[in-house]
Amino acid sequence: MSDDTIRLVTLGRIFRGRWRLLAVLTVVGALAGYGTSVVFPPRYTASVSVLLPGQWEERELLTQVDIATSSSVVDLAAAKLGRPDVSGEELRERVTAQAADGNIITISGTADTPARAQRLADQVAQQFVGFARRIAGGSTDPDAATGTDALRQKVVETDRRITDLAAAADPGRTVEGAQARTSLEKLRTSLEEAMTKLAEADRASDKAGMVVMDAAARPTGAAPPTRGQLIAAGALLFFLLAVVGHLVAARMNRRLRTEADIAAALGSAVLGTVDVPGEPRAHRSEKRGPWARIRRLLGADTPWNVPIQQGPGDEAGMLIRYRRVCVRLRDRLPAPRRLLVVVPDGDEIARRAAGQLAAEAGSDLSPSSSSRGFPLLRVVEVSVDRPIVPDRDTESGALVVLSAGSWTAEELAGLAEACADGGHEVVGTVVADPVGARPTRPADDPPDTGAPALAVRGHAAGGAL
Question: Where does the Polysaccharide chain length determinant N-terminal domain lie (predicted)?
Fold first, then answer.
């Protein structure tokens, strides 16, 4: 796993190198959100308020909220609505209630059309009010209210009459008078108990007198999540998943980037780093087929996490790096000899660097006694899946050229073993880095004639020399 810190520059590389893939995935996410909105059509919510007169405690209000959404109330509303295609259980999921300030319960109904949502909210509120009145024994009959007031008036008159009779009775002179006063007091007590029960019934009736404050207003917009929200959420989700996927892949990437790791995997020292003018197609895979064409179309066939560094400034500075590598290679060899330049198959940056390196080594055709001349190099591409290096013949050593961040330690170890099987000692490694395009040579600047054409490539599978 890579230990590189995820910074804004990393996100910038993802956007720059994978913008086509990110755009396609964002569109796919938007289409997925649209498909979700088709499967789950928009919903509309209407609300109605019910006023509860009297004094109510908080737990009593919560009880009324539970009653408003209970199956007893919702099933009655479903029967009134007359929708056999909607079950009572499904309808209960569309009804909600909430206690608000001021002894008000807000009942909300959700349906697939504004009209149905309005009817559902109104019907549930009506059934809730009626159900609460039936529980409390309340009645909306005005004659019943008038009869209750008349009864209360009769009780008051009777109590007054009892007082008069008790005063007129013989004040304790006879046994019959005492018994009469005792009976009158018992009657008074019974009337007081009856008045108390009547007052309690009146308070219960007041609580049962719930009022629907107004009809539910027809909703003008869909309840969240709307179709637009689902489309935006799908696009954003797919975009974020794509970015996170790139970051996770970069964290889990086991390809070697540093010179020390590359040298340890190949078992040879790194002779230097050379620059190759970076072009988008230089990193692209040469594979064919429909999947490769799709990857090329989406820009996924080029590594996004290979930074394009700034070059030395001109062509002469690049050639100096190649010549210095040739000098180090010459100094490591006891005598001038031929070497194979092994390039991993598919590493276009390394192939171009190897060709330029071979051309630079071949440009030294008249070695002096002090320099002994550069070794002759021949480039061969070797598959990293099944590496086979040509057997030792005129060449007596191998120089591995590769780009950083493209190969794992296991793949490079396989290349080193293939070189050993072919009888070639890995005398060194050269790392190729892509750099920005070099500036155009002025018209009056004569071209450098010291670099001939690139060396001829050999067979990737180790053909005849």
Answer: 4-74
